[in-house]
Structure formats: C-alpha cells, structure tokens
Amino acid sequence: MKSENAKALYIPDARLLDPVGGRDARGALFVDAAGRIAPVPAKLPPASKLTVIDRPGLVVTPGLCDVHVHFRDPGATDTEDLVSGCAAAANGGFTRVVTMPNTTPPTDTPDLVRRARNAPGAAAVFPCACATVGRAGKACAPLEALEEAGAVAFSDDGAMVSDPEVMRVVMLRAKKLGRPVMDHAVLPSLQQGGIVRDCPAARTFGLPLFPPEAEVEAVRADIALCRATGCALHLQHLSCAESVALVRAARAEGLPVTAEATPHHLALAAEDIPGNDGDWRMNPPLGTRADVEALRQGVLDGTLTVFATDHAPHAAAAKAKGFKAAPFGVIGLETAVGVTWDVMVRQCGLAPLAWAAAWVVAPNRLIGLPPPTLDVGAPAELAILAPDDEWTVDPAKLASKSRNSPWLGRTLRGRAVATYRRGRLRAPTL
Question: Quick check: 331 and 88 in contact, CB under 8 A?
Fold first, then answer.
C-alpha cells in the first residue's frame, strides 16, 4: 500500500542509460506515486504530489550494485555499520550491495546472514557468507543453511582458502547451490608479509614488498579448481597484468570465471603513493603503471566485467600509524562513480553503456538477481548521476563513518547526486 504522502518523480531531461535493454538516449523519466516507471502523463500531478529534478547534465541509470563491501557489522561498528554503510552506498549511487563476511564474529551462521539481509537502510544488503567455518580455511562452512538464510555467494574475503582440497569441497557444494565462490586471491605463502609493490615510497620507508606472484599464482590455482569443479568463480580486486591475462584465457576457454576491477586499482599506481600515508595501504596493493594499463584494457575488452569498490572502512587512529602499521583497506562507495567514469569513459573511451553494465548488469547476474531496468512498468530503482560535476572530496561530508580514502581533498569529476528505491528519493547533493 502506498503512503498518502508518496510523490511521483519527474526528470524532464536526462541521458537515460539502461544497459539491460541497450538504451542510451536523451529523454524524460516519470515515476508514479506507486514507485513504478510510467509514461510521462499528459498532465503532471500537482506540485504537492510531484518531485521534479531538472538540472543540466544528468545521467539516469538503473541503481548501481557493488558486490564487494565491508560494513564491519558486527564487530567494528565504530568504523562502519549496516546503516551508515548503506547511507554511503546511496550517496554513491548504489541501491544494492554485497557485504563481505570478515566480521567479528565471522558471518558463518544463518542468524548472522539473516541479520545482514534484513538490515534497514538506504540500500538493499545481500550478504556473502563465509566459505569456511570461522574463515579459518580448515573446513567448509554450512553453505546450504547459509544459502537458505539469504547468502548470495561464499568467500573468506580477506583471507584466501589456500588449502586446495578445502577449496575444492567449497566449490563443489557451492556449484550444487548455483552460487559463486568469490576469492581474495593472494597466497600468504608467497606474500610473506609484503604490503606494497616496489615504488619510491617503499624504498624511502623500508616497506616490505608484495611480490606480484602472490596474486598471480593464487589466480592460477583458483582457475584450475574452477576448471575441475565447474563452480562459478569470481576473482576479487585484481591488481596485476598477468592476473588479467589468466582471466582472459580462462574466459576464452569457456570457464565460468568473472573478475572485478576496483576504482583505486584502475586509477592509481604504486608510484602515486605520496609518502608514509596509511590511507594508501590496501590489499592487494596498487600495481605498476603497466598493471594499471592492463586492468583498463581488461575492462575495455570485456575480460573484467565487474566494477566493485572493496569499500573497507578503518578507524582514523589505526590509519594514522603510517603505512607499515596501518591496516589494509580504503573506502570507495562515495567516490566510485567519479573515479570510474573519469578513468574508463572519459580517458579510455569505454562506452557509457558498458560502464553502466559493469555496475548494474554483471554484478546482479553474478549473485543471481535480475538487474533493475528503466523499462516502463518496472519498479523504479535508480541512480541519478552528474558525470561532469567537479567536486572536492570533503571528509566532513561523507556518509561513511570512516575517512580512509586516497581521494580526500582531491577534486573529482563526476558523482552520484541521488538514488531512488522503494518509493524513496535520496538526494543529498541536489
């Protein structure tokens, strides 16, 4: 039942990008008071029953979906919780997010899955549950019960399941459920405490080096298990050129392998690290300029079909300890549109529809959901974007509880200005 206070929404002129139907055209968009996309009526509702968004340069897409976020709930809600994380998502144009299970305690029980799935917030939460009990990598988690409770995927994100026999069992059981296994593909035995790729900052501050083989060999091993089990495999936050090549070959072979590119790995290289700044420490670390170019090419040629932020909040005091002592991770939900549109569309020539597909179609299909659409009659689930807006990333204006971002104080071009979901318009920057 609609609320008596519900309003229709009218956007008289925007670029409408719907990657589901391949639509890229200027036009008007009307959402009725029941929250469905409808033809623009001959006579608009009265002002008291209508919200109008009329400003130049708008782009409207179906709501974006981020399949890789950390909301720290339960366990570290001072850095992010389900409500604040969803608010950050909505500020960034996201109406759906997939939360990772490296919470405290780990999300390896049906009750914790249901708690996340039913969280109130400005975006819909779809939990990814643990692949192994306690994220310890020793025994397969109760995948069937977790899936029944609402888990859309399985991962020990933050820690690779490095025992191939355990991972094989996980993948075989996940395949039976029709759910993907997502992997943080970094072999601890090769990483050996490394935290950064070779670069001036690493040499200046004596930072332990992260060998690219730690990721590349993990990707190779995961693909071999995908080949053996037939389970859908999703490789998270790739950072190395050779990893992209391995995924390209696997997909050409017809294996059910997908992989994601994060905004920070697409935009920044290790050489950009400005100094002993913990906000630039992430796992996997930033790659070389050649790695960045390979990641961009992977997006352009369809090897990397998914964009994802790996939004990873941390307390300011922890990040202030310097690069060597800081925890891994950066936030990214509220800056993702500007970074990826600028790098991939404006600089690299990616078609806007392909950009939208990487934020809408591929992520939803990965987790088994129909993507939202701009078709008449569909429930309205929208991201309203201003790709030409220039704005400075002001930490005081972020919805996230955390501020660990390499973009703080920098000017970005492009941002989300509103989302619409379940009859509610959120427009923090209009």
Answer: yes
For the chain, 430 residues long, the average pLDDT of each consecutive 10-residue run is 72 98 97 98 97 97 98 98 98 98 98 96 97 98 98 96 97 98 97 97 98 98 98 98 98 98 98 98 98 98 98 98 98 98 98 98 98 98 98 97 98 98 89
Pairing of strands 257-261, 233-235: parallel
Nearest to 59 by CA among 391, 382, 422: 382
Catalytic site includes residue 310: yes
What pLDDT does residue 2 have?
Answer: 46
Q: Is the CB of residue 374 less than 8 Å from the CB of residue 28?
A: no
- By the 10 Å C-beta count (0-12 exposed, 13-18 middle, 19+ buried), 204 is classed as exposed
User: What count of other Cβ atoms lies within 10 Å of the Cβ of residue 224?
Assistant: 13
- Which residues touch 354 (CB under 8 Å, ≥6 apart)? 19
262's tokens: 């994060």
Tens of pLDDT, residues 106-138: 999 999 999 999 999 899 999 999 999 999 999
For 97, residues 6+ apart whose C-beta sits below 8 A from its C-beta are 65, 66, 67, 69, 71, 85, 86, 89, 123, 124, 125, 126, 333
Residue 266: enclosing H or E segment and its boundaries?
helix 263-267
The overall pTM is greater than 0.85: yes
Residue 145, token pair as written in the block: 């019960």
297 phi/psi in degrees, rounded to 5: -65, -35
C-beta neighbour count of 2 within 10 angstroms: 10
* Residue 216, helix vs strand vs coil: helix
* CB burial of residue 298 (10 Å; 0-12, 13-18, 19+): buried
Q: What are phi and psi of 79, to 5 degrees?
A: -95, -30
CB 235 within 8 A of CB 247: yes
State the Cα–Cα distance between residues 153 and 422, nearest whole angstrom: 24
Q: Residue written as tokens 């029953």?
A: 49
Annotated catalytic residue: which of 73, 310, 342, 389?
Answer: 310
The neighbour count for residue 212, using CB atoms within 10 Å, is 22
Burial class (CB in 10 A: 0-12, 13-18, 19+), 308: buried
| Joined tokens for residue 136 | 């310890």
Q: What share of the chain is helix, strand, coil (3-state, %, to 5)?
A: 35, 25, 45
Give the residue among 284, 274, 269, 295 at the shortest CA–CA distance from 329: 284
Q: Which amino acid is at 169?
A: V
Rounded to an integer, what distance in angstroms lies between the CA atom of residue 19 and that of residue 177? 28
